[in-house]
Amino acid sequence: MTVYRLPAADLKGEGMTSQRARDRLAANLKEGGIQDPRVIDVIRNTPRHHFIDQALHSRAYENTALPIGHGQTISQPWVVARMTEALIEFGLPQKVLEIGTGSGYQAAVLAALVPQVFTVERIEELLRQARRRFRQLGLTNLRSRYDDGKLGWPDEAPFDAIILTAAGDTIPSRILDQLSPTGVLVAPVGSPSRQTLIRMRGDGQGDFTQEELGAVSFVPLLGGIG
Ligand code: SAH
């Protein structure tokens, strides 16, 4: 388990960012059907207020998505929990690729669970802020890249697990090409108004099975760098 390097006061937070608010969020996730205790513990221990603007700190541990600027959002904690749980259900992956760093929260949650996280973001300013947060938290098993995530991170492929945190109408083929033959991919797929969370799992022989995990709402997966 990652031990964050922030000063104790910043880590714990005060008032609405207190331990009590986090415990309430953890209880909320369980009630919402999240079952993996590792995921619930990591979400309880990850300082979500560190990933959003100070003006929103009082809402950091609410189970809602929040704006992070540039028209983007930090995902709802339940969605982060569900996607993380779905990604690690068959065993902890060694090497995970995330497309859509955003605030950096989902990447930090993953970095507390798996040995290596790679994350790609197309908005430079968001990536700059996320990197500062990773540094302040002392997350050394996480690398990030400013690029069009539709291209994946070819130099580091293959990945045991890939997570997309922005929705396209399909999974870009170059990303699929970077999934190991026994890998797991979790992504929202669909139109801007109607998306389904899907999970693909490789059988090791070149075939992938696909399951639907429910309806979700994500910002769009865009092309190019912003
Ligand atoms: N995982 C993030 C969620 C951020 S919202 C978090 O925990 O905060 C989705 C992010 O995907 C946005 O920051 C958006 O800029 C980014 N994004 C959209 N299309 C992308 C692409 N093609 N490549 C990389 N990032 C992309």
Task: Explain the overall architecture.
This protein has seven helices and nine strands; from the N terminus they run H-H-H-E-E-H-E-H-E-H-E-E-H-E-E-E. Strand 1 and strand 2 form a beta hairpin. With 226 residues, the chain is of the alpha/beta class. It has a domain of 152 residues: Vaccinia Virus protein VP39 (Rossmann fold), CATH 3.40.50. A seven-stranded mixed beta sheet has the order 5-4-3-6-7-8-9. It has a two-stranded antiparallel ribbon with strand order 1-2. The relative contact order is 0.13. The protein is globular. S-adenosyl-L-homocysteine (SAH) binds next to strand 2, helix 5 and strand 4. The site of S-adenosyl-L-homocysteine has 24 residues, from strand 2, helix 5 and strand 4.
The CATH topology name of the domain at 65-216 reads Rossmann fold
Tell me the name of the CATH class of the domain at 65-216: Alpha Beta
Q: How far apart lie the N and C ends?
A: 34 Å
Annotated CATH homologous superfamily of the domain at 65-216: Vaccinia Virus protein VP39
Low-confidence stretches: none
Rounded average pLDDT: 94
The CATH architecture designation of the domain at 65-216 is 3-Layer(aba) Sandwich
The total strand number stands at 9
Based on CA inertia axes, which overall geometry fits? globular
**Class computed from helices, strands and strand pairing:** alpha/beta
Cofactors, ions and other ligands in the entry: S-adenosyl-L-homocysteine
Largest sheet: 7 strands, mixed
Question: How are the strands of the largest sheet arranged?
Answer: 5-4-3-6-7-8-9
